[in-house]
Amino acid sequence: MVLDNDNILGEILLRVALATSLVRAALVCRRWLHIVSHPAFLRRFCDLNSPPLLGLYIQPIYEIPKFALMPDLPDELAAIAHRASSALDGYPPENNVFILSCLNGRLILNLCGPDCRDYYVLLSPLDLGLQMGWGKMAAVASQRPAAGKAESAASPRLAVGKAEAEVEGKGGCGRSRGQRRPAVTGSLLSASW
Amino acid sequence: MAAPESGDGNNGAARMVTLISSDNTRFEVEAAAASLSQTLQLTILDGGGGGGDGIPLPNVDSATLSKVLEYCIKHAPAAANGGAPNATAVDRAELERFDNEFVNIDQSVLYSLIMAAHNLEIEGLQSLVAKKVADMIKGKSPMEIRRTLGFPDPTPEEQAEMNAHMLEYGWAYE
């Protein structure tokens, strides 16, 4: 049987072109999964098939950015494109979501939290892992005002937010918050203090 | 066709070589066409395959070999031009049309072809057939792929494993 030859099967699977097709093929059986999981195979796959452009985020002033799909996307990309288009659905308009940058499928968002402070969020609409990270982030942001005093929020950015909330919860020292504040207004880089 | 042997199998002159399939059918083709096969090229450069000798190909039957040679003869002129830098758009379109027609064949023939292309190291043909089989896989669910390619139904354990993976990679299935 031809497909018992790993080299030939590899040549075939290299040419399914879309990552979605590759993932489906990977589940056909263990041997196929083994072949497509090999780092050398994945490198060749990426060299041979550049990732398709799903669409563009359009940023109207004072509105949540909208995702415009590229025309004529293959059906099997519809789900993943939908993920990109619904990634910002959870934000109410008053958050003033603004896309600062878009690179390699990731977005850096600037948004106004419920406490009227600037937040910076790294969002990867296509990547479940990072999206969960963002979910946690959003939860932290939305709990803030309820968690107590309106002034409680020194700026949580990215993963830093959670650790900081814990620190504040324990210490609750106004002075330390005051010291941190200058870093808050800065760019994303300030998140890594 | 009776040009003197030039000793150079690559120049597209009418030097002929004989290939012998597994069922002992003899095929006489231009050396330039047979040289699309990396495996045969060395033998041909060494002067093999000419006269009454012939190059035996014990892994390729006559039906498959005639199909392989059909491809090689069609593609030999372009290959002789070193990837055809001076080929016209018409030539390229014609080759593309030929390729599309060429792989419009039964699955079992496709498999024999890709196996032969692999053994004979004919890169263009292997790539062409691999693309065709890949197109049969594209956009299908793992179960549909199994059915398309004639795999037996999965065992309950395999099925459970597939289901677990499908949950994990939901984005590829929505």
Automatic annotation (TrEMBL), chain A:
PANTHER family: F-BOX DOMAIN CONTAINING PROTEIN-RELATED. Residues 9-46 form the F-box domain. It comes from Eleusine coracana subsp. coracana. Residues 169-193 are annotated as: Disordered. SUPFAM superfamilies: F-box domain. Pfam families: F-box-like. It comes from the Eukaryota. Gene3D superfamilies: 1.20.1280.50. This is F-box domain-containing protein.
Automatic annotation (TrEMBL), chain B:
Pathway: Protein modification; protein ubiquitination. The keyword rRNA processing does not apply. Transmembrane segments: none annotated. Residues 16-75 form the SKP1 component POZ domain. One of its GO terms (biological process) is ubiquitin-dependent protein catabolic process. It comes from the Eukaryota. Pfam families: Skp1, Skp1_POZ. Residues 124-163 form the SKP1 component dimerisation domain. Signal peptide: none annotated. InterPro entries: SKP1, SKP1-like, SKP1-like_dim_sf, SKP1/BTB/POZ_sf, Skp1_comp_dimer, Skp1_comp_POZ. Keywords: Ubl conjugation pathway. Part of a SCF (SKP1-cullin-F-box) protein ligase complex. Involved in ubiquitination and subsequent proteasomal degradation of target proteins. Together with CUL1, RBX1 and a F-box protein, it forms a SCF E3 ubiquitin ligase complex. The functional specificity of this complex depends on the type of F-box protein. In the SCF complex, it serves as an adapter that links the F-box protein to CUL1. Belongs to the SKP1 family. This is SKP1-like protein. The gene is ga14711.
